[in-house]
Amino acid sequence: MIRVGFRCDAGVRSGVGHLVRCVALAEELRARGVEVTFLGEVRGSAWARAQLCERGLPLVPAPEEPARLAALARELRLDAAVLDSYELPEGTGAALRGAGLTVLAIVDGDPLGQEADLYLDQNLGAERCPFPVPDRRLAGARYVLLRDSVRERGRGRGRPAGPVPRVLCFFGGTDSAGVAPAWAGALLATGAPFEATVVDPTPFEATVVDPAPFEAAVMSSTPFVAGGPIAVIPPTDRLPELMAGADLVVTAAGSAVWELLHLGVPTALTWVADNQLIGYEELVGRGVAAGLGRAADAAAVGVLARLLADPAAREEHGRRGRGLVDGKGRERVADALLRSDPR
């Protein structure tokens, strides 16, 4: 039996995007009879840990030092390793290859000095970007990794649009930047009718932003009260269902964007980390998503107001994104990984 280890972490500070895309590839490998083990830590996110537990995916603590990680890989009799982290020491891939493993490094542009047999950059337009070893790279939306729950939802959107737009607002599994309350306030500032679900691990009261004029959109001290248009819920496995049923999603340009493109959901984007800016500019530049900018300010409130008031404008973004991610990326990645020769 082939054995593959996934070296990634998840937590409040680092978010859960690395874990989620690794879980998608792990589901594909498991379906092919491959034994899968996760190596790393899950800190402060019960939801992220549940993604592994519910799928029966073991999690083994991993040493940081490359030689010790390679020794652990030999002990576990791994044939291949998938690396997905911005914080691994540069020599990690080289040490694992030296131990006889095939190494796949999942990157977002810069490989950060990591040595690998294969590199995966699933970002839109990545195939047009220069790369140190282009012949060993799987690049672009053809290789997006999607979970089973998203691929199943991709067969059909949720319930038909109603008279009031349904909005979903989330920023990863942990909202590591703590921006959800500000964007909930920006939605309220539009003065438009809507029903919103905000996914956030920390309950909060959305504060009302003065909606008129937008030029003076400043947070007021008036709390949002229960029974209004916004419900705040904790991270949930129902997220693909909520995405498929939304008329508009407000989120950051992270890994969840590829799920939204697959589902064809109209999306308005911001970014919360510098490494998301390239994806943000590509998606907004193509008209695949509406651009909100970095801050929940007056300009962003104006964009949201237009989208909430104009169903055709919303759906145009969804139409442009639909079809860019066909849902078969993880199959292509698994094919490439399993046919690679260990070094």
Structure, explained:
The protein has 343 residues and is an alpha/beta fold. The protein folds into two domains: 3-146 and 327-339, Rossmann fold, CATH 3.40.50.11190; 151-321, Glycogen Phosphorylase B (Rossmann fold, 3-Layer(aba) Sandwich), CATH 3.40.50. Helices cover 33% and strands 19% of the residues. The chain has twelve helices and 17 strands. The protein has helices at 17-31, 46-53, 66-75, 92-98, 148-153, 180-189, 239-244, 256-263, 277-285, 298-309, 311-321, 329-339, and strands at 3-7, 10-11, 35-39, 42-43, 59-60, 80-83, 102-106, 118-121, 137-139, 166-170, 195-199, 207-209, 219-223, 230-233, 248-252, 267-270, 290-291. The protein has a seven-stranded parallel β-sheet, sandwiched between helices. A six-stranded parallel β-sheet has the order 14-11-10-15-16-17, with helices on both faces. The chain has a two-stranded parallel ribbon with strand order 2-4. Strand 10, helix 6 and strand 11 (195-199) form a beta-alpha-beta unit. Helix 3 (66-75) runs parallel beside helix 4.
Question: In short, what is this structure?
Answer:
The protein has 343 residues and is an alpha/beta fold.
Ranges where pLDDT stays below 50 over 5 or more residues in a row are: 209-227
- What is the count of β-strands? 17
Strands of the largest sheet, in order across it?
5-3-1-6-7-8-9
What is the CA-CA span between the terminal residues? 18 Å
* Name given to the CATH homologous superfamily of the largest domain: Glycogen Phosphorylase B
Choose one word for the global shape: globular
Count of alpha and pi helical runs: 12
Q: Indicate the percent of residues in helices.
A: 25-40%
CATH class designation of the largest domain: Alpha Beta
Just name the CATH architecture of the largest domain: 3-Layer(aba) Sandwich
Radius of gyration: 21 Å
- Name the helix and strand elements from N-terminus to C-terminus, one letter apiece: EEHEEHEHEHEEEHEHEEEEHEHEHEHHH
What's the multimeric state?
single chain
Strand content: 15-25%
Structural class, please? alpha/beta
